[in-house]
C-alpha cells in the first residue's frame, strides 16, 4: 500500500513592518500608509499605529517564493492601489475592500517605478527590462510599450494633464514621451551619473531630478495651449511663445533652469514635492532627508531683487570704476532692478535636515497637511521601522514610530513553549514573545545579541544565550530581564533542555559544555519567587562547540564541534561513546528523534546525514540544500524531519525512506531557525528578512510520486518560460529611438487561452456542420430531433465561442490573439457580426477586430474569402460604436444638467475651491508687489535728497 502524508501550507507571516525593496506611499485620504512587507502590502492606520489590512497575494505555495517580492507601490486619487513585483507583474488593489481587482503582465524584469496620472485612469510602469508601459486602469489592459532607454527605468512623471510622460533611467538620460502620438519628443542629457528619482510640483512649474551628482537639477515645464502657442513658467513669470517658434523650441518640453548644491555627498534616492508644492524633500541613500522650501512667484522675485540690491551695495562698497562695462553686462545677461531674472536659489531655499537613526529606504509626504505644521513626512528605515516627522518652519519633530511589531535585525532563534501557546524570538538587541496562532507581539524585552533560547515549562521564565557569553533570565509575565549570568567566555551557541529535569545544557565557543540547574527560590520578606540558576557540571571540548543535542531518554549527549565532527557522550558519566566523521564543513545543527534511534546533522557543506545512535553508522547522506543547512528538527514521535537553509527553503523529509516530501517556499532571505510544535501540527521559521512564518499541517493527503511529478512539471514550465525568451535565438538588438511595441508578454496563461479559443472554434465548426447535415437530412426524410453537443453547455456555436473569448483576461487578449493561426483568426472574424448585436460586447468586438486586423493585415487584403466579412464588419462596427458614444455623451450631458439643477437649488456655488484660492493668492501677491514698489520709490527719493 502506498503511504500518504499530510500536506503543510503557509498559514501566516508576521514580524515584518516594512521591507527594503520598495517605496512607501500614502493613500489619497492621508489616513493610511501603504507599506511593502515582502510579498504583501500592509495598510497602516497612521494615527492608531496598527496594520488594518494586508493586501496579500493568494497563490499556491509553490509560487509564493521570493519572486513575488513587492518592488514598487503607487496610489491613485481613488481607492485603487498598484503594486509592482519582482517577476514583472503589477496588481491593482481596491484598498478599501482589500481585494485584487486585476493582474497586469507585461514586464520581463522587476517593476521599479509606478505612477498614476492625476485622474487615476492611466498607470505608467517602468522596469529593469528598460521598458515603459502605459496601462489603461479602467479597461484593465496595456495600451503600448515605450522603448528607448538603455538601462533600468528609475522613475516616471505625468505632465500636461497626462498627455506627456517623463521617464528617468540609470542610462543618465531623461526622456519626454508624447502619449498621443506615442513617440519620444525630447531626450535630455547633462547628468554625470545615474538618475534615481524625478518629480514635478502640483502646478507643473518645475521638474527636479536627483542623481549621484552633488547637485539637484531643475527644469521648467512648457505647457501646450489650444491656439498652438506654448506657455512656460521661468522664474515665476509666464513666457508666451507664438506659433512661429523654431522647431527646436516646439519639441522642448523641459528647459534647464539650474542646479542647487546638496549638503550630503551620498547619492539621491528619492525627490518628492508635497501636494501643495511648497516643500521639496530630497532623501539620500543614507540617514538624512533635506527639506527645501519652494517660494511662490512673488517671494522669488522679492528675493531676486534683494540679491541684486546686495550685489550692487557690495560693488559700491568696493568702489568699482568699471561702471559702463558692468551696466552693459547686467543688461545683456543678468537683469535690471525692476525685472530681475529669478534663479534656482531664489525659488528653493533649504529649510531643514531630518536625521534618522538608521539608513532611510523611502519617504512619502502626507497629502493632507496638519494644522500646526507645514507637512507630515513618513520614513521607512532599513531596520524594519516606520517613523513619522512633523515639519515646521524652524524645526522638525518625530511624532510617531512603529517598531513593536517586528525585530530590528535578523531573527536568530525561535523557541516554542511546552504547550505551544508562546513563541520566543531573539535578535541582536531584543527578545520578543509572540502568540504563534495570531502572530501578535505580546512582549518586547531589551537584551543582548541572543543566539539561542529556552522557555521553562511553566511559561513564566525563559533563558536566552547571548553572543557575549551571558545567559539572560527573562520574566515573561512582566516582560523584564531579571538577571544576567556570566556563563561562558565565548558566545553561547546552543541551549538544550535536559529531559525530565529542571535543567539545561549550554554549548559555547569557549570550548565548554556546561550543565545548569534552575529552581524557584522563595526569598524572605518578598512575595516574588525569583529563579535561581546554578552551574552543576562543566566539560571541556577540544574545539568550539556549535550545537548540542540530548536524547529524549537522557542517555546520550551529542556535541558538534568546529572540527567538523560530532562527539557522542553518555549523559550521566560524560564518558566518550562515539565520534561521527563525514561532514566536510562544520555541523551547524542537529537533532535526535523521539525514540532515540536516529541522529540527524545539518552542515555548512549543504548535506544532511542520518546516523544510527546504536553503532554510529551513517544511514544516508543527502544533498539537501543549495546552501548551508542552518536548522533541523524531528517531528515528535515520528521519523519525519524538517530542515531549513540559507537557500531560503523549508524542506520536509521522511528519513526512513530518505525521501524529500515537500519543499516550502516563502522566505526572501536566509532562514536561520526553526521550531516545531509538540503535536507537529505547525512549524515556525525565522529568517534574515525579519519575518517569522507559520506553516500549518492540513488534512489534505499527498503521495511522494505525485509530488515528484509536480516538481518535474514545474521544472518543465520554468524551461518553457525560458523558451518564451528564445534562449538559442540571437540576442535582440537594441530598440530604435522611441520604438513602440505591444504592452503584454507571452505567458503560460496566454498560451492556454489561445488553445481554448482554437478548441472552441473547432467545436463550433463541427456543431455547425452537424446542424447543416441535419437540416439537409430533414428535407429528405423524417429524422429524429437534433441533439446538441453536450460540451457546448446548451449554447449556440456563436455564443460558445463568445463565452470562451470573454473568459480571457483583458490584459492577455492581445497576446492570446497574436498566437492564433491565420485560418483560426479568419473563423473568429466571421463570428464578430453576430456578437455586435449584444450591446455589452461591442468594446470586446472592436478590440478583437482591431488586433486581428493589425496582425494579419497583409493576409487579409490578399485573401478573397476575407473581403465579405470585412465589408460587413466595416458597416456594422462604425454604427455600433457611434451608438455607444451617443449613449455615453447623453449620460454625461444628463449628469451635467443634474449638477446645474443642484447648483440652482443650493445657495452655495459649484466652484472649485482651488481656483478661489489661486485668485486670493494672486491678489495678495499683487498687493505685496505694489508695496515693494512704493517702498523702493521712497528709498530712491531719500537717496536723491541726501545727494542734493
Automatic annotation (TrEMBL):
Region (Disordered): 303-339, 921-948
UniProt organism field: Acer negundo (Box elder)
Localization per Swiss-Prot or TrEMBL: Nucleus, Nucleolus
Gene Ontology biological process: maturation of SSU-rRNA
Upper taxonomic lineage: Eukaryota, Viridiplantae, Streptophyta, Embryophyta, Tracheophyta
Domain Small-subunit processome Utp12: 798-900
GO cellular component terms listed in the entry, alphabetical order: Pwp2p-containing subcomplex of 90S preribosome; small-subunit processome
Family membership: Belongs to the WD repeat WDR3/UTP12 family.
Main location: nucleus
Positions with biased composition (Basic and acidic residues): 320-334, 926-936
Protein name: Small-subunit processome Utp12 domain-containing protein
Amino acid at each position: 500500500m502506498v503511504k500518504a502524508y499530510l500536506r503543510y501550507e503557509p498559514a501566516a507571516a508576521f514580524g515584518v513592518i516594512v521591507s527594503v525593496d520598495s517605496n512607501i506611499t500614502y493613500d489619497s485620504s492621508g489616513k493610511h500608509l501603504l507599506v511593502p512587507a515582502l510579498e504583501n502590502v500592509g495598510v497602516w492606520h497612521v494615527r492608531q499605529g496598527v496594520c488594518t489590512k494586508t493586501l496579500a497575494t493568494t497563490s499556491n505555495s509553490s509560487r509564493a517564493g521570493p519572486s513575488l517580492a513587492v518592488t514598487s507601490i503607487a496610489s491613485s486619487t481613488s481607492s485603487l492601489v498598484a503594486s509592482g513585483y519582482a517577476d514583472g507583474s503589477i496588481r491593482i488593489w481596491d484598498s478599501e475592500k482589500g481585494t485584487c481587482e486585476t493582474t497586469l503582465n507585461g514586464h520581463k524584469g522587476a517593476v521599479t517605478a509606478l505612477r498614476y496620472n492625476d485622474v487615476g485612469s492611466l498607470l505608467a510602469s517602468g522596469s529593469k527590462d528598460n521598458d515603459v508601459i502605459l496601462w489603461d486602469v479602467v479597461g484593465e489592459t496595456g495600451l503600448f510599450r515605450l522603448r528607448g532607454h538603455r538601462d533600468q527605468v528609475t522613475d516616471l512623471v505625468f505632465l500636461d494633464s497626462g498627455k506627456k510622460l517623463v521617464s528617468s533611467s540609470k542610462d543618465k538620460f531623461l526622456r519626454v514621451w508624447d502619449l498621443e502620438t506615442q513617440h519620444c519628443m525630447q531626450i535630455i542629457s547633462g547628468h554625470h551619473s545615474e538618475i534615481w528619482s524625478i518629480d514635478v510640483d502640483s502646478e507643473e512649474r518645475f521638474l527636479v531630478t536627483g542623481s549621484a551628482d552633488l547637485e539637484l537639477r531643475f527644469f521648467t515645464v512648457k505647457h501646450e495651449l489650444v491656439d498652438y502657442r506654448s506657455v512656460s513658467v521661468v522664474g515665476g513669470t509666464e513666457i508666451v511663445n507664438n506659433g512661429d517658434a523654431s522647431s527646436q523650441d516646439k519639441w522642448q518640453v523641459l528647459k534647464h533652469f539650474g542646479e542647487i548644491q546638496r549638503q550630503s555627498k551620498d547619492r539621491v534616492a528619492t525627490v518628492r514635492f508635497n501636494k501643495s508644492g511648497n516643500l521639496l524633500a530630497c532623501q539620500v541613500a543614507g540617514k538624512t532627508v533635506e527639506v527645501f522650501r519652494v517660494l511662490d512667484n512673488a517671494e522669488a522675485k522679492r528675493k531676486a531683487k534683494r540679491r541684486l540690491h546686495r550685489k550692487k551695495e557690495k560693488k559700491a562698497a568696493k568702489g568699482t570704476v568699471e561702471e559702463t562695462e558692468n551696466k552693459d553686462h547686467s543688461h545683456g545677461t543678468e537683469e535690471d532692478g525692476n525685472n530681475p531674472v529669478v534663479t534656482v536659489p531664489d525659488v528653493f531655499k533649504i529649510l531643514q535636515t531630518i536625521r534618522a537613526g538608521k539608513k532611510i529606504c523611502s519617504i512619502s509626504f502626507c497629502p493632507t497637511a496638519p494644522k500646526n505644521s507645514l507637512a507630515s513626512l513618513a520614513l521607512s528605515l532599513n531596520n524594519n521601522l516606520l517613523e513619522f516627522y512633523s515639519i515646521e518652519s524652524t524645526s522638525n519633530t518625530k511624532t510617531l514610530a512603529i517598531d513593536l511589531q517586528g525585530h530590528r535585525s535578523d531573527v536568530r532563534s525561535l523557541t516554542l513553549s511546552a504547550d505551544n501557546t508562546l513563541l520566543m524570538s531573539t535578535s541582536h538587541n531584543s527578545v520578543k514573545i509572540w502568540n504563534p496562532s495570531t502572530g501578535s507581539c505580546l512582549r518586547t524585552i531589551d537584551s543582548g545579541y541572543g543566539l539561542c533560547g529556552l522557555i521553562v515549562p511553566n511559561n513564566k521564565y525563559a533563558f536566552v544565550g547571548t553572543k557575549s557569553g551571558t545567559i539572560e533570565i527573562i520574566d515573561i509575565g512582566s516582560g523584564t530581564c531579571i538577571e544576567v549570568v556570566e556563563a561562558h567566555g565565548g558566545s553561547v551557541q546552543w541551549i538544550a533542555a535536559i529531559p525530565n529535569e529542571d535543567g539545561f545544557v549550554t554549548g559555547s565557543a569557549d570550548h565548554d559544555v556546561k550543565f545548569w540547574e534552575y529552581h524557584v527560590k522563595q526569598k524572605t520578606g518578598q512575595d516574588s519567587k525569583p529563579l535561581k540558576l546554578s552551574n552543576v557540571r562543566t566539560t571541556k571540548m577540544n574545539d568550539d562547540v556549535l550545537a548540542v543535542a540530548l536524547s529524549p531518554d537522557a542517555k546520550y549527549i551529542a556535541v558538534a564541534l568546529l572540527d567538523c565532527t560530532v562527539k557522542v557522550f553518555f549523559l550521566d558519566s560524560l564518558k566518550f561513546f562515539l565520534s561521527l566523521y563525514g561532514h566536510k564543513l562544520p555541523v551547524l545543527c542537529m537533532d535526535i528523534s523521539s525514540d532515540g534511534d536516529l541522529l540527524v546533522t545539518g552542515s555548512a557543506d549543504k548535506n544532511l546525514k542520518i546516523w544510527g545512535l546504536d553503532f554510529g553508522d551513517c544511514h544516508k547522506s543527502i544533498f539537501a540544500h543549495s546552501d548551508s543547512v542552518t536548522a533541523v528538527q524531528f517531528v515528535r514521535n515520528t521519523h519525519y524531519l524538517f530542515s531549513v537553509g540559507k537557500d531560503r527553503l523549508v524542506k520536509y523529509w521522511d528519513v526512513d525512506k530518505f525521501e524529500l516530501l515537500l519543499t516550502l517556499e516563502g522566505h526572501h532571505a536566509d532562514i536561520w531557525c526553526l521550531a516545531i510544535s509538540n503535536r507537529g501540527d505547525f512549524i515556525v521559521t525565522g529568517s534574515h528578512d525579519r519575518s517569522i512564518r507559520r506553516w500549518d499541517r492540513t488534512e489534505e493527503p499527498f503521495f511522494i510520486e505525485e509530488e515528484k511529478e509536480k516538481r518535474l512539471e514545474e521544472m518543465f514550465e520554468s524551461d518553457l518560460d525560458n523558451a518564451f525568451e528564445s534562449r538559442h535565438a540571437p540576442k535582440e538588438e537594441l530598440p530604435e529611438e522611441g520604438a513602440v511595441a505591444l504592452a503584454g508578454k507571452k505567458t503560460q496563461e496566454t498560451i492556454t487561452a489561445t488553445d481554448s479559443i482554437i478548441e472552441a472554434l473547432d467545436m463550433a465548426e463541427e456543431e455547425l456542420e452537424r446542424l447543416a447535415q441535419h437540416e439537409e437530412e430533414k428535407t429528405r426524410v423524417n429524422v429524429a430531433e437534433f441533439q446538441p453537443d453536450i460540451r457546448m453547455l446548451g449554447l449556440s456555436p456563436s455564443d460558445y465561442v463568445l463565452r470562451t473569448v470573454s473568459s480571457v483576461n483583458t490584459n492577455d487578449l492581445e497576446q492570446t490573439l497574436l498566437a492564433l493561426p491565420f485560418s483560426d483568426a479568419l473563423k473568429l472574424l466571421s463570428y464578430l457580426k453576430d456578437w455586435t448585436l449584444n450591446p455589452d460586447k461591442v468594446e470586446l468586438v472592436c478590440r478583437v477586430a482591431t488586433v486581428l486586423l493589425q496582425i494579419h493585415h497583409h493576409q487579409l487584403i490578399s485573401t478573397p474569402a476575407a473581403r465579405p466579412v470585412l465589408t460587413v464588419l466595416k458597416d456594422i462596427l462604425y454604427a455600433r460604436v457611434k451608438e455607444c458614444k451617443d449613449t455615453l455623451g447623453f449620460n454625461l450631458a444628463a449628469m451635467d444638467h443634474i449638477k446645474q439643477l443642484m447648483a440652482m437649488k443650493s445657495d452655495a456655488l459649484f466652484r472649485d475651491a482651488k481656483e478661489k484660492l489661486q485668485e486670493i493668492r494672486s491678489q495678495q501677491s499683487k498687493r505685496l508687489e505694489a508695496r515693494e514698489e512704493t517702498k523702493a520709490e521712497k528709498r530712491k527719493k531719500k537717496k536723491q535728497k541726501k545727494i542734493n
